[in-house]
Amino acid sequence: MCGIFGIVTNREQGLGPVLTDAARRLSYRGYDSVGCATFHADHSVDLRKDKGKVDEVASRLGFAEMTGTRGITQLRWATFGTPSTINAQPHFDSDGDLVGAHNGNVVNNVELRLQFAAEGMTVRSENDGESCVHAVERWFDRGFDMVESIRRAYGDLQGDYAFVIGHVGEDKLYAIKKGSGLVVGLTDDTTCVSSDLPSILPLTRRILRIHDGEIAILSPGSVELVRVADGEAIQRDPEEIVETMEAAQKGGYPHFMLKEIHEQPQVARELLHLLDASVDVAGYVEKMRKARHLYLVACGTSYHACMLGAVYLARLAGRAAVPVLAPQFIAQYGPALGPEDVGVFVSQSGETKDVLNALNVARERGVEVLSLVNVIGSTLMVTADRCLPLACGYEISVPATKTFLNQVVAFLYLAMRMGGHPTAMLYDLPRLIEATLQQVEPQIPALEQALLPWHDTYCLGYGATYPIALEGALKLKEVTYIHCEGMLSTEFKHGPLSAVSDAYPVIFVAGPENVPLIVSGINEVSCRGGRTIIIGEEDPRLRANGHDLLVLPKSGPLFSPILGILPLQLLAYRVSVAKGFDPDFPRNLSKTLTVD
Ligand code: M6R
User: Do 447 and 341 fall into the same domain?
Assistant: First the structure.
């Protein structure tokens, strides 16, 4: 994911090392390009940028020697335009008077670039960060000052972003926030701004948080805030940050797992923007469509996403796809594989040995290798014939949460594209995810008590909620050390029902289309004294028969299974913490499994 950092000082000085350090601190987000711009007192600008890693590009382009009174650095993670020197940020405006960089997605970038070119501006790249600069240039060149030009640009730029921009003839930088993070840091003679608090903390602990729809005007040692809506000044005092660097990286949450659970609305929104803007999706979908056999290959959580992906592909595109655990792929289907087949290999890390082993054999048999991967530059990403990124940023907690969500969102999106359905309705999903988290989180503590005394339990689903039940069970096992078995709800009566005794907890994930079947399963448990915990939309049948009902917002059969994973993630997290475990780093487990 992109990151930005800007700094304003009161005298010409060596800013290159400061900007390079800030870029290193932003690099945990994942990126493919890096750039620095410094503004000199004589109104010249030094702009150096390229694709590559911070240390390599910094040493090749000599960032260390860059001096100035103001500076901007940006890490780019490609959405609009391939990773390249020209698409790297920061960007100049047409005549080199404005320099800026952004973080986020400008969703009307393609339309804007055409407009800017038609208006006579020099558009050099495909990148939406450049559109932010031209959007300001458009008004600045008509005689408006910087603040007014940025206010007007805000109306032109659609999407979620933050950007920082400066004019050669001034001693200020300007930053604006809309949907993406933005924080200002202050010392007596320096002011900096960044997409990330942790990138500022080594410089100062006096910070000011910028809200959506606000412009920050940065001068050395001071900042003014202006509201975009009416141009009025805003008064807000800086705060002193006392938390450690690690706590700051956790963004105020006690654990990365909880932070990452709460990042899900945002990462889903960003992924949808990315896929809508991607020129790679059409070819990717075409390969899936033309496949003789379509396999969805992964391990663990990523495999559960493949299972739900197969449900979506059948439902929305009429396409049968085979979800398969990676180590079983060759063992089971190896003899049947051929060049007409396509494998979609799915992985958070892109380094899971089981997945790469399967990929290598499949490739030998001529299978077209597609991938969905989170970690940029990973082996799976670079070796696949085609790759779509999951766009979650780093997932630090060992239990996968936000990457599972985006794997499922990616499959849903691909299935809709393959089936010829408009994808606009998917933008409702991030809002529903947010609403679900708010709605269910207060109800989790009561359920935590139901699970705590037990060493084992079950999590049951049916149809589209079956993969969710498996994933919920995996989350519970992984971080609580309670044995939780995920199962098709109808299978429970074929044996496991014997486990039920007084107050024995069984979790059901009910899809809105399968309520009667789920109710049968609930009654089989409750009439034997078991405690049934139901996750589903409000329904009198579920309420009347279940013991506890965790209510999901009404969203229908496509979205409801996705929302169903959220209470299970929260429940696993809470039980883990209540038992005194560290959910971020469960015993015996590793985030990336590079062994057989
Ligand atoms: O990086 P991958 O998605 O390939 O990893 C696969 C599994 O190891 C992983 O999903 C694992 O099951 C998770 N830690 C579960 O939360």
Answer: no
Q: What DSSP assignment string belongs to 439-462?
A: HHGGGHHHHHHHHTT-SEEEEEE-
Pocket test for ligand 1, best of 304, 565, 590, 593 (most atoms within 8 A of CB): 593
For 325-362, how does the pLDDT look when each residue is reduced to its tens digit (9 = 90+)?
A: 999 999 999 999 999 999 999 999 998 989 999 999 99
Cβ contacts of residue 246 below 8 Å, gap of 6+? Answer: none
- Predicted TM-score (pTM) above 0.70: yes
Ligand 1 atom closest to residue 475's alpha carbon, by position in its atom list: 16
Pairing mode, if any, of strands 294-298 and 322-325? parallel
Q: Is the CB of 354 under 6 A from ligand 1?
A: no
75 and 46 within one domain = yes
Beta carbons of 174 and 166 less than 8 angstroms apart: yes
Q: Contact, 267 vs 160, CB < 8 A? A: no
Cβ contacts of residue 19 below 8 Å, gap of 6+? 5, 7, 36, 38, 63, 66, 71, 72, 73
* Active-site amino acid positions: 2, 591
| Cα distance from N-terminal residue to C-terminal residue, the chain | 30
Report the number of distinct structural domains present in the chain: 3
Q: How far is the CA of 296 from the centre of ligand 1 (A)?
A: 15
CA–CA gap between residue 27 and residue 127 (Å, rounded): 19
Of all protein residues, the one whose alpha carbon is nearest to atom 9 of ligand 1 is 300
Looking at the fold, whether 405 and 478 belong to one and the same domain comes out as: no
Q: By C-alpha distance, which of 511, 525, 492, 491 is closest to 557?
A: 511
Are 418 and 442 within one domain?
no
